[in-house]
Amino acid sequence: MRGSTSSKFVVYYGVNGEDKEHKYRFTAKLGKVSNEHEAFLIVKNEIIELIKAGKENNRIAIKSNRLADLFKYKILGTYFPTIYLNLYSQRHLNFFIGELGLNPSGNTVLEKQDALFEFKNSDSTMQKWSNYEFNSFLYNVIGYPPSNDEEEKAKDALPPIDKVKPVFVQLDILQSDKTGKPKHGGAGKPDYEEQQERNNKLGKRGENIVYNMEKHFFAEHNFPIKELEHSSKTNDRLGYDIKSLDEKGNTKFIEVKATRKQMGNANFIITDNEKEKAESLENYYIYIVFEAHTLTPKIWQIKEPFKEHQDKFLLTPINYRVEITVK
Known about the structure:
Helix content is 38%, strand content 13%. The chain has helices spanning 36-56, 59-64, 69-79, 90-100, 109-121, 131-142, 149-154, 192-221, 272-280, 305-308, and strands at residues 11-16, 19-26, 167-169, 242-245, 251-258, 284-290, 298-303. It has a five-stranded mixed sheet with strand order 3-7-6-5-4.
């Protein structure tokens, strides 16, 4: 097993940081232990208990097992390859989750594996794959995860969603310059496919950030979580991304727009369907997520955007539908 230090095995022989003396060592996870022999017996017993828990998919016993995560989930993925992924590095898990726009229910290895399984099983082709084939897909198609922070930055990898700490901000809307013209990019032909991929990834991240904030809001107000829906996951043609509740318990509809830009002037695309829903639905919000690629995004809520602020917005048509009838 590569990666991390020897402490992942809980008991080992060697040095420890600046302490260069070679001797038997065991980590604090084992509690009060007299010597290496006792530590080794405990580790062997933990391995046996882990395998029993893994066979029964006993999540509580797996999480409370005293083996280090790298060691623990490597064993589970080896003994039970149909139940667990042979993928247990937090850095690797976070990379794939970020690239696929997933939102795990928690920050443990098991919960992140669950998010990947949900993605796998949502596709009729991938459902037929073994976990080994799915692992191969992740590494060969999505790409190999970065091994350090520098590589992470170079690959433009998104930070772990469970470490993101967004805040709500309030901005005042000023009158837009109605004579303004749409701005065009500089010279050179843009890579539209790459742009679309980046936008899709950022869009999913923005939705997940807002959804997680709404979950906290529900918990604070003791609202039933079943009333919170990440609607765009099952139907992306509703004209909104999330159905939630406001402080009075009334239904509200949220369309999320994510950007890498810092907090300030907003510029985003809205479809005819989204604009129609914004004008017809009660309690319709647009949540703009600034700096969505960072650990500290800023969320600006705009209520009833095309009812209360229509005269202040500058809407620019940018697409045409072309219909050609042929013989």
